[in-house]
Predict the structure.
Amino acid sequence: MAATPVMQLPVISECSAEGCAYNHEHTCHAVAITVGDTDAPVCDTFVSADTDGGEPSVTGRVGACKMADCRHNSGLECHAPAISVGYEQEQVDCLTYARA
């Protein structure tokens, strides 16, 4: 039986959420984020903290996406090559989200 190929998680190419503990110089250092909450493409991993979060040698990726109505979403997994995260109407959202 052939091995099932492992999906490459989409990279977070830019994050402008300055107040997030995982954001250092517009780069996300969370190993993987989760996107989506109810009906908005928010970054569920966003956390405001005084300490630096994440792994400095890692550029964040999308681990899961709950936005089933996004054209990049299949099986609650993001299939965009990369995403951007930033402020949309005063909340931190996936700016790559596009309704299908």
